[in-house]
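Final report, Chapter 2: Outcomes

The project's central promise was a pipeline that accepts a single protein chain and returns its three-dimensional structure in a standardized token representation, suitable for archiving and comparison. That pipeline is now operational. To close this chapter, we reproduce one record exactly as it appears in the project archive, with the input sequence first and the structure output second.
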Amino acid sequence: MFRSWPALSCAVFGMGAVITGCTTYEPRPLDPARHRADWHNRSAGDESVLLFADRLAERAANPAPAFDPDDGLTLPEGELVAMVFHPDLRLARLRAGVASASAEHAGRWDDPEFSIDVLRITEGVANPWIVTPGLAITIPISGRLGVERDRADAALRAEIERVAEQEWAVRHELRLAWLGWSAASLRLEEHERLLKSISDLSNSTALLAEAGELLRTEAALFAIERSQRGYELHRLRGAVAEAEQRVRAVLGLSPGAPIELVPSLDVHGYADDGGPSEAAAGNQTLARLRTEYEVAEQTLRREIRKQYPDLTIGPLYESDEGQSRVGLFGAIPVPVLNANKRGIAEAEAEREFARAACETEYERVVGRIAGARARARALLAEREHLVAELVPLVDHQLADARRLLELGEGGGLVLLESMVRAHETKMHLIDVRLDEARVRAELAFLSGPQIGHEDPEVSELSDSDSGDEVDR
């Protein structure tokens, strides 16, 4: 008779009870149709965007105007929409959720390990069974678990900084897309204005040519210019439509979402004070690299702790030929051959790499800030020259040419040339303003959120959540 069956049955029953308390798998298949419908139903006025704008206003030292996309979406309002719907931010926040789950459960003791040996004596004995069950518990006397918790916390901070960096990059991406669309819209308006003026003059010069008051060759030049500008108009309209779709993509909205964008060539959130090194203090990439260096430090601590052994101990029961024995067993590794030398060497190399990444990025950011500031000064001087000297000259020349033609003392070619020259000057001014705005956007991106100049970012959106008129 097998007298150890009761003890074995209790052990198996206890293990079964533990297993039934484990997490079970529940499938969750993809639903493309539902996602497509949700995406097409998104709008700038969704409740998730309104709630995010309210939370941001509560935390801001200098609250911005109330969020109201119904009267047209401005660039600052568009940044709020992108914070909620941009696809890369959704992935970044979910990735941070993985780090959060890891930090929440880091440093737990290893589960006890139940083992059992069952032997049967082949010789003829009264009780041929030898049963040896055991329960092993690992006691972390090395302190490794505490270090693992510290490393998991550092990894979570690094992921949070990565989300903040991604948010700042999305704002920069939206600003560049918005500036490009705004400049394309201004070019289209200026071109339409020129085309209307040329069309009006083309009709007038045609009548003058029929009356013999103007050479037909000069009148034909107006018709040719009108045709050529009409051809260019289609290209500019296509550029505006393409740029608008690029803005919609950054906002995370579908191509047909109801939205009216307000053009702007102004970039807020950058204060040009202090040297490049001071400006780089708030750089988001540097902030993320500093937290990653802390992760490398904690990783090295963990690998060093792994040298030191943990104690494995537990009760032991044995039944041999009907004789029961109760005892205790223990085991501890002896770190004389391995001692986790490979893990320590790799962690040291990773720490040096993290240090170099932080230091070289600092050098790169400071250099880019200095270069961008130099370009900003040059563009400012160019714009001031255009506004103060060239624009007034071409406007005056155009007005004189119109007056002389009306008086019959000037030719149509002079007026046409004056109109084209004024148009090219204004188009060049738009390009200069665009370049200047892009440089300021680059400086704002490199410098990071400026305390006192821009509201702080909020990286608290869950997966479910997930400027001014142009001066003519």
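Archive annotation: The first strand starts at residue 113 and ends at 120.
This record, like all others produced under the grant, will remain available to the consortium after the project formally closes.
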